[in-house]
Design brief:
Chain B: It is a single-pass membrane protein. Chain B: Pfam families: PBP_dimer (PF03717), Transpeptidase (PF00905). Chain B: This is Penicillin-binding protein 2. Chain B: Keywords: Carboxypeptidase, Cell membrane, Cell shape, Cell wall biogenesis/degradation, Hydrolase, Membrane, Peptidoglycan synthesis, Protease, Transmembrane, Transmembrane helix. Chain B: It is found in: Cell membrane; Membrane. The structure holds two protein chains of two kinds. Chain A is mostly helical. Chain A has 18 helices and three strands. In chain A, strand 2 and strand 3 form a beta hairpin. By secondary structure, chain B is α+β, with helices and mostly antiparallel strands. Chain B has three domains: 34 residues; 188 residues, Penicillin-binding protein 2a (Domain 2); 410 residues, Beta-lactamase, CATH 3.40.710.10. Classes of the chains: A mainly alpha, B alpha+beta. At the A-B interface, helix 9, helix 14, helix 15, helix 16 and helix 17 of A face helix 1 and helix 2 of B.
Chain lengths: 418, 642
């Protein structure tokens, strides 16, 4: 009874956007990995051939999700989360180290990255926890549990260390904020990030002066909150301390490659042949596309292989080069349309579980999208996160597909809920 | 409110991405340029430079292949520097310096590492080329000079400099370009257009195929051959006659304006500026600031014209009708024009004919006085005179097809108003102009052109050095007659006077059997100021001529610096040149030998000593003083005999 009409109720707009993005993604990978001699597009020895296979394998995956019991995701969320955490812990013993990060299991020719799975598991558990009727994020205890559900995988992933994935989890603060976490968490986070970058660009001594002036102005015009000078004073001290500690963290805690990434962003003393090479080549490829691009399969930077990892994290550079500004904006708008559609659907869910989960999906996808593209155009430090549905790789494609289609399943199932 | 946070963040950040991408793709042009630089490789095919022939079809300048070693600093890998340097016979310091310099120009673009290897060096290097990553050879064509004269006519080719690279997009670092002479003037004709192939390359600099299937590629266009108006035999003869002298010879064909010979002395063998020694040789030539072998004395140097200017003074007098053929003036070793102007003509009653052939200062002083006093307004008179003079091509660029030249000077009312604060000019102030000594100055080319006007009885064609370019029509300005302001009939008595210069006048010792020559001797005073003191130097020897008298085929001007007086050096040289060109042989072998072997180097050494204020051995000073005395008395005797 539940499943018979699933085909009528699934959201075709989301699915259409998904299909368009996956197809464009494959076309871009084809261009970025095209060898000089002619081969079949199904040639498994080629990157685009394998990606074709990965895309084909998403079909059974999608069918399994759509035709399973929608309740199973909610019921098994504790199990998924528990397994996920165990998998993360297991990495310390059985994990494979790639590029300094121990975040990978290897079974013969097949690799598996548990953090991809944990993303979905965390979203499910967070949705489950917040959907209990007695939970209210105004209470400190509930805040702590909610933050802990996100925080535990963040800690484990930071130990791998994989800052990129950790950042994706931290973005779930958007979901908690939506569900009633006091705003100051959210704003403190934003202010902390802003202060971090500002204190790298501006001398801390000047920075605390600027903060002081802003706080004085805020104090004078503040009408809403009680104007307690002691609170203002303490806040000021915390921010000043933070500003000063950043330079300490920068000098003593950050690894050299992390410093490079930040230096590259703020344009500090960068060698374009070494640490600046990736970003420079990426900007050249995108910038050389112009308004209309060089034409599909005509990108000189893409063909010459100047951009490293072009079929994975840097795939958007090929879009920029070959399809130009018009193509770039099209891809961005397609993504934005998908995000807004998911949020719209989430807001219209009848159960809190579905809503929170949908919100998590939108947040995850958006964070990947923004961090990935922003790092290519020097708006964000270089962090290795894939562009959803575009970047090459079965693991990430399937993870995003599962993440999205669980929500589409929940959405299709909403008429059965009351 | 909380519902709106995530959608708002999504929309705002996406707008941020779009704005940033818009900036990178549409506004910032720099990135496109960088993309072209690193993904597209241009390979050039340099066409052979056009050949240069003389007017009779003799090949003067051809080409030889040469090889440059190019370097792309970024691509240098694991090189055995010692082996590399030994192979090319260079020092390690040179290697380091060159790589640094290339790196400054661009680490990614090729620069010339070592230029103009000969075949043997190239063969040795090519064998091991693949061992030296980052270096490759580029074939170019270099000049192969078939003759050892005419360096000033040809100019030379050299690597383009920074200034040209910035101005002219056609050239790339290391390309060759013509400098000076016809190589510069006809650069685009001679060089042709290089072909370009656009190739795609990958990050390892490996070529991965043609860019856009070669649709932007172009084929090299061969340079065109030039036929010069120069007569090689005459050019060579003039060069030989001027050995160990300084000065210039310009010979023109009056009825076309074609330059038959353009000699400057001292000169150099054009082959000096080809090959690996080029830059060393060029530096040596460039820094010789006394003899100035790179300075074209025929085109660039200006001198007071001296007596040849009397031709113009006389013609203007006739045209203005202040004199006629029978007008008579008196000379008593000179004449008084407010101040006394000396004369060595030795006659007492003078008319146009004997005034000309005896070069009487008094006669032409009086003629000039009448010309300037003809109108009440002395400034009008001066301008009227100046316009006549300018119609002979003096006081202005002639507009030849050589990249250099000199305006010379013809004074006019504007100049004299400044000099005399607007007061009325009296002819006595400027009487020296009448005999070519005052403010007037001319280049040797202008003097030759003036003789062409006389030979043509009233017109000239703009002198030019290129006779024919394959497949092109000669510039119209070289086939347009420029008329002087003097009527044709006035030239006839003047030409008779010039013929009598050879018959009974100041150059009667230079008469050639069976050839009727017309000419005029000249002597130009010459001073220099060194360290606040003025030194009188030996006069310049000047001679102008054309031949034969009827249907002239050559007009010539010769200046020999510090050559004492007109028919001591310049006269014989001009006459020998004219005889050689018109008759094809030389009748007075002894005169020829004297001229070929004659040297003025001692004289030039003396001037150099003055310039550098060198202390000279007193006994030598005495010797030279005695010598000068003898020479002066000789000169006086000779002048008196004439």
């Amino acid at each position: 009874m539940k499943n018979q009409s699933v085909g009528n109720r699934i959201d075709y707009i989301s699915i259409l956007l998904y299909i368009v993005l996956v197809i464009m993604g494959w076309m871009t990978i084809y261009s970025a990995s095209l060898p000089l001699e002619e081969t079949s597009i199904f040639d498994i020895s080629q990157i685009y051939g394998r990606q074709m296979l990965f895309i084909g394998l998403t079909i059974p995956l999608i069918l399994v999700i759509l035709f399973s019991d929608a309740k199973i995701f909610e019921r098994l969320s504790f199990v998924f989360y528990g397994v996920g955490i165990l998998l993360l812990l297991g990495l310390f013993v059985f994990g494979v180290t790639k590029k300094g990060q121990t975040n990978w299991y290897q079974f013969g020719g097949f690799g598996f990255q548990p953090s991809e799975f944990v993303k979905t598991a965390t979203a499910l558990l967070l949705a489950k926890y917040l959907s209990y009727s007695q939970i209210n994020l105004k209470y400190t205890k509930h805040q702590i549990i909610g933050l802990a559900i996100v925080g535990i995988p963040v800690l484990l992933i930071l130990m791998q260390p994989d800052a990129g994935s950790a950042m994706i989890f931290i973005s779930l603060i958007f979901v908690l904020n939506r569900e009633g976490l006091p705003s100051w968490y959210f704003f403190s986070g934003i202010i902390a990030i802003a202060l971090f970058f500002l204190s790298l660009v501006i001398e801390p001594a000047y920075l605390i002066g600027i903060i002081f002036i802003i706080m004085v102005i805020h104090y004078i015009f503040n009408r809403k909150i009680s104007r307690n000078p002691i609170v203002y004073g303490l806040l000021y001290l915390v921010m000043a301390g933070f500003a000063f500690s950043v330079s300490y963290v920068y000098d003593s805690v950050l690894e050299p490659h992390q410093k490079d990434r930040i230096n590259v962003l703020i344009g500090d003393d960068v060698d374009m042949k070494r640490e600046g090479y990736n970003l420079n080549q990426s900007m050249i490829a995108i910038g050389s596309g112009g308004l209309l691009g060089k034409g599909y399969l005509e990108g000189t930077q893409t063909k010459g292989g100047f951009v490293p990892e072009q079929h994975t994290d840097y795939i958007f550079t090929t879009v920029g080069e070959e399809w130009g500004f018009v193509g770039s904006i099209t891809v961005i708008l397609l993504f934005v349309a998908l995000f807004l559609r998911i949020i719209y659907l989430a807001e219209n869910q009848k159960t809190k579980f579905s809503r929170v989960y949908g919100y998590c999906v939108a947040t995850y996808l958006f964070t990947h999208f923004f961090v990935n593209i922003a790092m290519l155009i020097k708006l964000f430090p270089t962090i290795g996160v894939p562009l959803p549905f575009f970047s090459y790789g079965g693991s990430s494609l399937w993870a995003f597909t599962i993440l999205l289609f669980i929500f589409i399943k929940l959405d299709a199932n909403k008429v059965n809920e009351w | 409110m909380r519902k709106a946070v995530l959608p708002a963040v999504i929309i705002i950040t996406s707008l941020l991405l779009i704005v940033r991408i818009f900036y990178l793709q549409v506004i910032d042009e720099n990135l496109k340029l960088q993309s072209e630089n690193n993904a597209i490789k241009k390979v050039f095919d340099f066409p052979e430079r056009g050949y240069i022939y003389d007017r009779n079809g003799k090949l003067l300048v051809a080409n030889q292949p040469s090889y440059d070693i190019m370097v792309v600093p970024r691509e240098i890998k694991n090189i055995d520097t010692t082996e590399f340097c030994n192979l090319l016979h260079i020092t390690k310091e040179y290697f380091i310096k060159k790589i640094e310099k290339a790196n400054v120009y661009s680490p990614r673009l090729p620069s010339v590492f070592l230029s103009q290897l000969n075949k043997a060096e190239y063969a040795a290097f090519q064998e091991k080329e693949r061992k030296f990553e980052g270096f490759y050879t580029q074939k170019r064509s270099l000049r192969d000079y078939q003759v050892n004269v005419g360096a000033n006519v040809f100019g030379f080719i050299t690597q383009v400099n920074e200034a040209i690279l910035k101005k002219n997009k056609y050239y790339n670092s290391g390309d060759l370009i013509g400098k000076q002479g016809v190589e510069q003037q006809y650069e685009e004709t001679l060089r042709g257009i290089k072909g370009v192939k656009y190739l795609l390359r990958d990050k390892h600099n490996k070529i991965i195929g043609p860019y856009k299937n070669g649709q932007f590629d172009t084929i090299a266009q061969q340079g065109k051959d030039l036929t010069l108006t120069i007569d090689y035999e005459l050019q060579k003869y003039g060069t030989e006659l001027m050995v160990n002298k300084r000065g210039g010879i310009v010979a023109l064909e009056p009825k076309t304006g074609e330059i038959l010979a353009l000699v400057t002395a001292p000169t150099y063998d054009p082959a000096l500026l080809v090959g690996r020694q080029r830059s060393k040789n060029y530096t040596a030539l460039y820094h010789d600031s006394i003899a100035k072998p790179l300075y074209d004395r025929g085109l660039q140097a200006t001198y007071p014209p001296g007596s040849p200017f009397k031709i113009i003074t006389g013609l203007i007098g006739l045209q203005e009708e202040v004199i006629d053929e029978q007008s008579t003036f008196y000379c008593n070793h000179g004449a008084n024009f407010g101040r006394f102007m000396k004369c060595h003509c030795g006659l007492h009653t003078l008319q146009l004919n004997n005034g000309t052939y005896k070069s009487c200062n008094s006669y032409f002083g009086n003629t000039y006085k009448r010309t300037i006093e003809k109108y009440k307004d002395s400034y009008y008179s001066v301008d009227n005179w100046a316009n006549h003079v300018k119609s002979f091509g003096l006081g202005q660029f002639l507009g030849t097809d050589m990249p250099i030249g000199s305006k010379g000077l013809v004074p006019d009312s504007k100049m004299y108003k400044r000099m005399y604060n607007g007061a009325k000019i009296r002819s006595s102030y400027i009487i020296s102009n009448s005999i070519g000594q005052g403010e007037v100055s001319t280049s040797t080319l202008q003097l030759a052109n003036m003789m062409a006007v006389v030979a043509n009885k009233g017109y000239y064609y703009t002198p030019h050095i290129v006779k024919k370019i394959k497949g092109e029509v000669l510039d119209k300005k070289f086939t347009t007659k420029h008329y002087s302001t003097i009527d044709k009939q006035y030239f006839t008595p003047m030409i008779q006077g010039l013929a009598d210069v050879y018959n009974v006048g100041t150059a009667s010792n230079l008469k050639v059997q069976g050839l009727e020559l017309c000419g005029k001797t000249g002597t130009a005073e010459n001073k220099i100021r060194v360290a606040g003191k003025t030194y009188q130097l030996k006069d310049h020897s000047i001679f102008v001529a054309f031949a034969p008298k009827e249907n002239p085929t050559i007009a010539i001007a010769v200046v020999v610096e510090n050559g004492y007086w007109g028919n001591r050096w310049a006269g014989p040289i001009a006459t020998l040149m004219a005889e050689k060109y018109v008759t094809g042989k030389i009748t007075r072998k002894d005169l020829e030998t004297t001229m070929l072997n004659g040297s003025l180097l001692e004289e030039y050494k003396r001037i150099e000593n003055i310039i550098f204020q060198r202390k000279v051995d007193p006994t030598k000073v005495q010797d030279s003083l005695n010598k000068i005395k003898v020479e002066i008395s000789d000169a006086k005797k000779e002048e008196e005999e004439n």
